[in-house]
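Translate structure to sequence.
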């Protein structure tokens, strides 16, 4: 029976093989470089790998600015089990590439599984799998690790939900909860929220329209919070951190930005056209549309587009895929809604409770997913000849209308596209070739002169080409610090503290700390100001002048000892230690407009950094944050602890004398006459606890607007010890453990029952 099942599903192995072949370069070092992969995700994973090598998780890291609760930064995915194996046993670069390759294969397999669950024939399921794996959304987000890692769990969850609704086996229900839980541990959370929503919609649809029973539907809906409970150990700390930094409170303007331009609908038929701006994804056109080329995309390939239309027209009364026929246009409407009805969009966001997420254009993911599934429906020779011809005519008509719409759009004065032949934009030429080839391939398949596997291969060729021609820069892996002379020099210097400059988190990959932290969450206030001031130094706006003394003082306060810069801006802060040619930094670090591709990189020393720990004999209160910032940018105040009035810190008299006797990073000895405050150059977080002498532990308090302080009373020599613990971690871990054990027990119990008993119970 197993052999028969494998033989029946050979199309799945074809789809997986095609995806693996297109991305085979990942196995030999060809990967996304620059941008977020090198400046954000690999540094995060480098810190995770260092912690795993010590047999622990990175609950806190002092390498990101003046500190960060790193486990709570969900992009680290510290609780995702595959990461424990990959980043514990392999070097970061190899683990990153292998993870990307395996998750794309898993995406093809899970999409195939979902398509087959919907009774799509194996060849069609293979086309759906390849189309969704390499659709436009996956292409532009191949630089965003959380997206392609969590994506396989979307179709997998929907497929498992369908299996439970059809069979009623509790093992499928438990499997659904496990899949949803794994997806939540990967961070970012937007697609996870949509996945849960789609599971709920599937249950409601199958119960109310298809009559599969409300008991199963309600149990399916309950699997959504069950999955969240499995991931509580990640969701809890991330939620606490999000609340601390204001992640969930986005301004209206931010929620409305990055909508999909309605006029770009033609991209479904002409996928290359809007990728061919002369200045790329940052062309001024995109800013006029209040988005970027990194977010606005909508295509599934020419052949899948044809097949989706054929499938829709070929089986107009089919109920299995009716939800997707509705969701494709609904998702497109949601992605474009801020452009044509912003008030309505905000109302919808409030009703659905997803207003914490930005980038409306990402709703096109659901349109592309649905179109891929519908394409699988179209690759079925059982569709009548008349319906097939009608579908082909409709596809060609839509293509012609799309060409007319695209031509009108391309004639707009703000649109400047690359053109190679007779002034015709390259995107039109690509579209013409793709439609001719696609039409021929589909017609040959329909006539029986081309096997279904060849159709899937043709889809892989077109979409694979578009995948590598997207916004992500692909090249050979860049070894850090080995290929960076600048970072190698800094790595050998034992006096390096934090390294700032426009190089984001790159120093972390060299075992150093970054002075310009870049993470997926909002930054804590102290890190945020550190980044903002460097932005004023390295990216000044028109007519703006940087407050060099204020910037230098804050760098010193945050213990930034060196700056790396490819321009001359940093030289105003301190002495240059030298300049180097650094091809690795040239490839990774974003270039300013007008900058040459090959830059001269300087290391600048920031002299006299503030101490990591100091004792403040005096205490003062600032009325608000702006007043405090102004004060600290213009005065060292090493002997003063500044508190905000809103924090309600108890007043105290000035100490007659106070000095730091010792400090080793976790404990201090302070000799003082009268009350004083031990001030630490570390981000305030309520998870940090301090113990004075043999007294009870108590939370540190915020000082200087975003650092840590420990109040010492009386006089004498006090020993202060500090430790970090994630608030309520034991509770979150207990919830995850209980939910996981329950899911595993139900799954094992369900599928371990004898087959005849299972079948009897399912009737």
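Result:
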């Amino acid at each position: 029976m197993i052999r028969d099942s494998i033989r029946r599903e050979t199309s799945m192995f074809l789809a997986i093989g095609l995806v693996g072949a297109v991305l085979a370069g990942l196995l030999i070092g060809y990967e996304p470089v620059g941008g977020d992969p090198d400046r954000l995700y690999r540094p995060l994973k480098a810190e995770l790998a260092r912690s795993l090598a010590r047999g622990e998780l990175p609950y806190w890291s002092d390498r990101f600015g003046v500190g960060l609760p790193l486990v709570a930064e969900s992009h680290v995915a510290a609780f995702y089990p595959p990461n424990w194996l990959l980043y514990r046993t392999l070097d970061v670069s190899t683990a990153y590439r292998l993870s990307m390759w395996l998750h794309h294969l898993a995406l093809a397999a899970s999409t195939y599984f979902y398509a087959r669950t919907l009774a799509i024939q194996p060849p069609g399921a293979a086309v759906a799998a390849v189309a969704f794996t390499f659709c436009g959304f996956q292409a532009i987000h191949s630089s965003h690790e959380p997206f392609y890692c969590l994506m396989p769990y979307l179709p997998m969850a929907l497929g498992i939900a369908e299996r439970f609704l059809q069979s009623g086996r509790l093992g499928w229900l438990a499997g659904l909860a496990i899949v949803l839980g794994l997806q939540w541990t990967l961070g970012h959370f937007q697609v996870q929220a949509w996945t849960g929503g789609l599971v709920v919609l599937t249950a409601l649809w199958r119960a109310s329209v298809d009559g599969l029973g409300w008991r199963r539907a309600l149990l399916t809906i309950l699997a959504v919070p069950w999955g969240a409970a499995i991931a509580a150990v990640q969701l809890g700390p991330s939620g606490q951190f999000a609340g601390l930094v204001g992640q969930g409170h986005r301004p209206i303007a931010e929620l409305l930005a990055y909508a999909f331009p309605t006029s770009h609908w033609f991209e479904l038929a002409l996928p290359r056209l809007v990728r061919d701006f002369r200045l790329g994804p940052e062309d001024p056109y995109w800013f006029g549309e209040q988005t970027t080329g990194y977010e606005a995309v909508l295509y599934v390939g020419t052949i899948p587009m044809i097949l989706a239309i054929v499938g829709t027209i070929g089986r107009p009364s089919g109920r299995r895929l009716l939800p997707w026929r509705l969701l494709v246009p609904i998702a497109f409407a949601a992605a474009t809604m801020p452009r044509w009805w912003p008030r309505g969009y905000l109302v919808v966001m409030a009703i659905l409770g997803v207003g914490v997420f930005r980038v409306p254009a990402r709703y096109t993911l659901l349109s592309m997913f649905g179109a891929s599934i519908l394409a699988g429906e179209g690759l079925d020779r059982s569709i009548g000849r008349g319906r097939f011809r009608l579908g082909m005519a409709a596809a060609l008509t839509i293509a012609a209308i799309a060409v007319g719409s695209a031509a009108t759009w391309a004639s707009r004065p703000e649109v400047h596209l690359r053109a190679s032949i007779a002034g015709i934009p390259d995107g039109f030429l690509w579209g013409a070739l793709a439609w001719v080839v696609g039409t021929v391939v589909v017609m040959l398949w329909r006539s029986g002169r081309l096997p279904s596997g060849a159709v899937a291969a043709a889809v892989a060729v077109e979409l694979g080409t578009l995948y590598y021609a997207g916004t992500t820069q692909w090249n050979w892996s860049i070894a850090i610090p080995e290929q960076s002379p600048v970072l190698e020099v800094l790595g050998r210097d034992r006096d390096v503290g934090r390294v700032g400059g426009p190089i984001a988190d790159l120093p972390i990959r060299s075992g150093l700390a970054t002075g310009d932290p870049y993470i997926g969450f909002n930054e804590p206030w102290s890190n945020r100001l550190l980044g903002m001031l460097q932005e004023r130094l390295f990216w000044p706006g028109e007519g703006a002048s940087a407050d060099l003394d204020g910037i230098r003082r804050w760098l010193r306060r945050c213990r930034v000892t060196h700056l790396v810069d490819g321009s001359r801006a940093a030289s105003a802060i301190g002495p240059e230690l030298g300049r180097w040619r650094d091809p690795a930094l040239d490839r990774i670090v974003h270039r300013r407009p007008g900058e040459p591709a090959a830059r001269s990189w300087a290391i600048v020393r920031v002299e006299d950094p503030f101490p990591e720990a100091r004792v403040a004999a005096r205490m003062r209160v600032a009325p608000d944050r702006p007043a405090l910032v102004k004060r600290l940018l213009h005065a060292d105040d090493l002997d003063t602890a500044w508190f905000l009035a809103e924090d309600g810190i108890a007043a105290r008299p000035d100490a007659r004398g106070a000095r730091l006797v010792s400090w080793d990073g976790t404990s201090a000895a302070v000799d003082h006459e009268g009350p004083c405050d031990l001030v630490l150059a570390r981000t305030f977080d309520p998870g940090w606890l301090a113990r004075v002498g043999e007294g009870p532990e108590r939370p540190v308090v915020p000082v200087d607007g975003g650092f840590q302080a420990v109040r010492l009373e009386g006089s004498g020599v006090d020993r202060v010890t500090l430790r970090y613990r994630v608030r309520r971690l034991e509770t979150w871990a207990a919830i995850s453990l209980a939910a996981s054990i329950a899911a595993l027990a139900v799954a094992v119990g369900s599928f371990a029952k004898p087959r005849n008993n299972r079948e009897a119970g399912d009737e």
